[in-house]
Amino acid sequence: MLKGYFHKTGIEAGCDEAGRGCLAGPVFAAAVILPKKFRNTLLNDSKKLSDKQRKILRPIIEEQALAWSVATVEAAEIDQINILNASFLAMHKAVTTLSSVPELLLIDGNRFKKYKNIPHQCIIEGDGKYLSIAAASVLAKTYRDDYMDQLHDEFPMYHWINNKGYGTLKHRDAIRQYGFCRHHRMSFRLLPDQLAFEF
User: Fold this and answer.
1) What sections of the chain are H helices per DSSP?
2) pLDDT at 197 over 90
3) How many angstroms separate the CA atoms of 142 and 58, rounded?
């Protein structure tokens, strides 16, 4: 069972991102403030859940959370500031648009760039330890998947409806055949022979 909070008192927001390792599309981040008494036996790290389970959980999180927000940083900006900083920026944007101001940020991972004057706690594999971080991981993942499904309609050759922008064999083969598009992260190694491309 995941923990309901880091401290018994105070407003805590769990933060997580999705799409950090993808070759294409934005990085998404979510921030979620849950009631201290919130419990859900299904909720876990989104990577450990099926697509069906994530879709069940999303409306529950959105309805029962005290506040939640999802934000993005597009591929072009990822290329400018690098994916680590883009992930931090997406989380900052998500926290900024929360309807309540948290007193502590619970961050999935081991690094974070301080947000204003709000203290934070980095927790390795936090999405498998704290409900609020797990909730953020589910929202970030489902919103990003939906977005990549929409992009698939415009760029079906890359099979994003199946790979969500990750570097699968089909995705890389499509890049070889059709080249890259504006949603690809040009600072990433899209192909092993990428040096042969002219950007």
Assistant:
1) 51-64, 75-81, 83-96, 131-154, 160-163, 169-178
2) no
3) 8
Encode pLDDT of 77-91 as tens digits. Answer: 999 999 999 999 999
How far apart are alpha carbons 39 and 157 in whole angstroms? 42
Q: Is 186 helix (H, G, I), strand (E, B) or coil?
A: coil
What does the alpha-carbon distance between residue 69 and residue 101 come to, in Å, rounded to a whole number?
A: 12
Beta strands in 19-66, from DSSP E residues, in sequence order: 27-33
Coil, strand or helix: which one is 110?
A: coil
What the chain holds in terms of domains, given with CATH numbers, is 12-145 (3.30.420.10)
Tell me how far apart the alpha carbons of residues 180 and 176 are, in angstroms, rounded to a whole number.
Answer: 8
CA 91 to CA 57: how far, in whole Å? 21
